[in-house]
Every structure is written in C-alpha cells, then in structure tokens.
Amino acid sequence: MKRIGVLMAIRENDPLRQSYADALDDGLRAAGWIDGKNIQLDYRWAGADVGRIKQAAKEVMAGNPNVVIAHTSPATIALKSETSATPILFVTVTEPLAQGFVKSLAKPGGNVTGFSNFEFSMGGKWLQILKEIFPDVKRANVLFNPDTAPGAGQIFLRSIEAAAKAHAIEVSAAPVRSVSDIEAIFTSSSRSQEAGAIIPPDIFLVVNRASIIEHAARYRVPTIYQYDYFARNGGLVSYGVDVPDLFRRVAGYVDRVLNGATPADLPVQSPVKFQLVVNLKTATSLGLTVPPTLLAQADDVIE
After folding, report:
1. Which of 93, 127, 230, 290 is least surrounded by CB atoms within 10 angstroms?
2. Which stretches does DSSP call E strand in 101-242?
3. Residue 103 φ then ψ, to 5°
4. In what order do the strands lie in the sheet with 170-175?
5. CATH code at 198?
6. Distances 267 to 118, 124, 158, 249, 278 between C-alpha atoms, Å
7. Euclidean distance between CA atoms 72 and 65, whole angstroms
8. How far apart, in whole angstroms, are the C-alpha atoms of residue 5 and residue 12?
C-alpha cells in the first residue's frame, strides 16, 4: 500500500476541509487510487501558524510517505526543509520559481513540482474589477501577513503595483499579523470615501476570512478577494482560481509519481479554471451599483 502525506494549511474544523479533501479523493479515484485499498492518505491540518506547519511537516515525514502534497507556500517550505528526496507536490503556490521551489517551470529539476494559483496579470485584473464596481476608488490597501504570504507579500504586490498607474489607483502595502491589525486597516480605510482593499492569496487571510469579511462590511470598505468562498460568505466580489480543481489535478501528478515519474521532469502547472463571483446583496449594502457588463462576466451572482 502506497502512503500519501498531505499537509494542509487550514484548520481541521475549517468548512473548506471537505471540499478540498473530496476533490483530491475524486482525482485519485479517477486514477485508480482508493484510500484504504491501495493507498493510505495521512492528513495533517496545521492552520496558518508557521510553527505548527513546521511541526506538522515533521509528522508527515515521520510516516515515510511515498509522496507528499503541500497546500500553500508555507507548507512547501516546511516540507522542503524535511526532505530533498521524497517527492513534494504543491497546491496553491504563488510564483514557485520566484520562491526558489523549482529551477524552472518546465523542468523543475528537484523533488518539488505542482500547481500554482497565481499569474502576474491577476494583480491588474483585481484592480480593474475593483474600479468597475467602485468607480470612486483612488487607493487600495493590499493586506498580507509577511510571515505567511508568498515572498513575504512582495510577489503579488509587484503584480498589483505594475498595473496601478493604468487604473489611477494608489496601492498601499498593508501588513497584518493579527485580527486587531486587520481591523486597524479597515478602520483607517473607512476614513476615506475613495479607499478599497485587496485580499490576495495568503493562508493567514484565508484562515481569518470571517473577520476580514466582517470588518470590510462594518467599515464599508469595498474589497476584492482572491477566492470565491469570500464572496459566497458575504464579501463583495472575488476573482481567482478554483482551488478544488487544483486538488483534482494534483491527483494526476500523484498517480504519475507513484508509477515512477519524478518531480524533476513534471512541469509546474498554471491555473486553468478561474471564477468571478459577485455578491449583489453586499454591493447594495455598500451603496454600489454593479455594472451589467461585470454581471454578465460573473460565474456566479449572489442575490
């Protein structure tokens, strides 16, 4: 029986748990791998705490897995520090080349490869959508936790800043390490009638999404998010990758590794499925009118 270690950077009681695990299981079953029959899946749920992620990585590797799946950049970093031999397949990692996880996207060259969740052009897309739904926006705070965000937050900041001038929006870095920091950013933003916010990929922001959505609503700050579940749970609008799709796809790489392939020869895969979700109820509460053109592009509209 093959052993597959899975290090998840969300809590075990997170509602996202089931959708991610189900997607991975669906992909594995499609490839002929069934948990408890010919594979054993060993999950560790670490949340967004870097110390816990490092400890969970040790626990995963103690099980002598044939292959490990790393959810997010912090999990990938932690597992890389534990092994240079066991295949590591990452999911939802931003710019793996810039972070030094691989030598090239086409030929990773080591024991790490996987599926990214970000393309450089997405920063401009977030600004464009925010401008369409909130035409008065002049400044956008970009929230991130330097301890958990890819490249300490600089990777997506560069993407957003590169497009800021074209949209006449001033971009401000907004590092946060606690819920009180999050509230302080939204409190500051609320003093202006022209400030919005951007929530890029960062597991700290995902784990604390309820607080972010609550404060964006309380302080009436139009905010765009990376993942669809933010908008489905009260956020204004989201644009980003379909994460369960990445978990289904990584199962194909698990299959190839278990059949003899090496991560060194498996190209890093870019996201192919994106979702735009608009929450009309939230837009109305903020006094915003969503353009029909944006609604027409939306994959889902929450009314």
Report:
1. 290
2. 112-116, 139-144, 170-175, 195-199, 223-225, 237-241
3. -80, -30
4. 170-175, 139-144, 195-199, 223-225, 237-241, 274-279, 300-302
5. 3.40.50.2300
6. 16, 26, 24, 13, 33
7. 19
8. 15
Query: Which tens digits make up the pLDDT trace of 20-75?
Result: 999 999 999 999 999 999 999 999 999 999 999 999 999 999 999 999 999 999 99
Say whether both 151 and 291 belong to one domain. yes
Closest CA to 141 of 74, 189, 78: 189
**How does pLDDT run across 112-147, given as a tens digit for each residue?**
999 999 888 899 999 999 999 999 999 999 999 999
Same-domain status, 163 and 142: yes
Q: Which residue in this structure is represented by tokens 């509460």? A: 285
What does the alpha-carbon distance between residue 259 and residue 245 come to, in Å, rounded to a whole number?
Answer: 22
Which three-class secondary structure state does DSSP give residue 117? coil
Q: Is the Cα dihedral 211, 212, 213, 215 positive or negative?
A: positive
Q: What is the DSSP letter of 165?
A: G
Inter-residue contact 141 to 292 (CB < 8 Å): no
- Which neighbouring-strand residues pair with 141? 172, 197
Determine the angle formed by the axes of helices 243-258 and 16-30, rounding to 10 degrees.
Answer: 40
Whether 200 and 284 share a structural domain: yes
The answer on 289 and 256 residing in a single domain is no
| pTM of model > 0.85 | yes
Domain hosting 134: range is: 122-240+275-302
Domains in the chain: how many in total? 2
- 107 within 8 A of 132, measured Cβ to Cβ: no
